[in-house]
Design a protein that fits this description.
The chain is mainly alpha-helical. It has a domain of 205 residues. The chain is 72% helix and 2% strand. The protein is globular.
C-alpha cells in the first residue's frame, strides 16, 4: 500500500508540472485555434534562457527568471507580429507546418546560442524527502508542484476575472463577434502568446530542477499532446485533469508494469490511453464539440 501511495503522489506531483505546460498550449489554442507543436521547444528555450542568466550573466535566480521571461515575451511578440499577423485565414496544414518549422528553427538556433551554457538550474530546496505515515514524498517535486499550482491559479484568475481575460474568452467563443464589439484580436493574440512564453519559463525551470534540462527538454512537448486531447483541446480544466491522469498513469505504469513488461512502458501508457479516448470520446473529457450550422 505504501508503494502504491508513493507512486500515486509522485505521479500527481509530476502531473502539476504537466498541467502548467498544457495550460500554455490550451490558452494559445483557445484564442487562435492554432496547435503549437513547438511547445516543447518553448519550454526548452525558457529553461535555457534562465540557465544563461544564472551561469553566463550571473544575475541570480530572480534576475535570471526575469531575463528568461523578457526573452520569451520578445520571441512571442516577434513570432506573432512577423509571422502570424501576416496570415489571413490560412489552411490548417499551414498552421501545423508553421509551428513544426518554428520548433526546428528553435532547436537549431538554440544549439548555437546556448552552446556551452550549463543547463542546470538549482533552487534552495533541501534534497531529503518528507515522510508522511511512512510514505516518502520528494521535496523537490512537492515544491515544484506547489509553484506550478500557484502559477496555474494566477493564470486562471487572470483569464476569468480581468478585462483582458474576458476578451480572450470572447475571442475563443466567436472571433467575428468579438471583433464586431471592438475587441482588438491581434493585440490580444499578442498578449496570449506572451503569456505562453512566461508560462514556458516557469515550466522549464521547474522541469529542469526536478528532472534535468538541456536540449532533451524539448521532448516534454510530446507528453502534452495526449494530455490536451484527453482533457479536451479547448478546456483549461480538462488540461489540468488530463495532466494529473497522465502523471499518475505514467508513475503507476513505471512502478508496476515496467518490471514485468520491460522498461519504458510507463512512457507509452499515456498514448495507449490517448487511442482509447479518441475512439470513445474524440472531444476529450471536458472538451466541447464544435457545432457548425450548414
Amino acid at each position: 500500500m505504501v508503494f502504491f501511495l508513493a507512486l500515486l503522489i509522485d505521479g500527481a506531483l509530476a502531473g502539476a508540472i504537466y498541467a502548467l505546460i498544457a495550460l500554455a498550449f490550451v490558452l494559445v489554442y483557445k484564442a487562435s485555434r492554432m496547435i503549437n507543436f513547438a511547445i516543447g521547444e518553448w519550454v526548452m528555450w525558457g529553461a535555457l534562457l534562465v540557465a544563461t542568466g544564472v551561469h553566463a550573466l550571473g544575475l541570480g535566480l530572480i534576475g535570471a527568471v526575469t531575463f528568461g521571461c523578457a526573452g520569451m515575451i520578445s520571441l512571442a511578440f516577434a513570432f506573432s507580429r512577423l509571422v502570424l499577423r501576416r496570415m489571413t485565414t490560412p489552411p490548417v496544414i499551414t498552421l501545423v507546418m508553421i509551428t513544426l518549422g518554428l520548433g526546428a528553427v528553435m532547436r537549431g538556433v538554440g544549439a548555437v546560442i546556448f552552446a556551452g551554457v550549463p543547463s542546470a538550474v538549482s533552487l534552495p530546496i533541501p534534497a531529503d524527502p518528507i515522510m508522511i505515515d511512512g510514505v516518502p514524498i520528494a521535496t523537490d517535486k512537492l515544491v515544484a508542484a506547489i509553484v506550478a499550482t500557484l502559477c496555474i491559479a494566477l493564470v486562471g484568475a487572470f483569464y476569468r476575472r480581468s478585462r483582458t481575460g474576458l476578451a480572450l474568452q470572447a475571442i475563443a467563443d466567436d472571433r467575428q463577434t468579438a471583433m464586431s464589439v471592438g475587441i482588438d484580436v491581434d493585440h490580444h493574440l499578442l498578449i496570449v502568446w506572451g503569456i505562453a512564453g512566461v508560462i514556458s519559463v516557469a515550466a522549464g525551470v521547474l522541469w529542469t530542477f526536478v528532472s534535468g534540462g538541456g536540449f532533451g527538454l524539448a521532448l516534454v512537448g510530446l507528453k502534452v499532446f495526449p494530455i490536451v486531447i484527453i482533457g479536451g483541446l479547448d478546456s483549461i480544466a480538462g488540461a489540468i485533469l488530463g495532466a494529473i491522469i497522465i502523471g499518475v498513469l505514467e508513475s503507476l505504469g513505471a512502478g508496476y508494469l515496467d518490471p514485468r513488461l520491460g522498461g519504458g512502458f510507463g512512457n507509452i501508457a499515456s498514448y495507449l490511453l490517448l487511442i482509447v479516448m479518441l475512439l470513445a470520446r474524440p472531444t476529450g473529457l471536458l472538451g466541447r464539440p464544435r457545432i457548425e450550422r450548414v
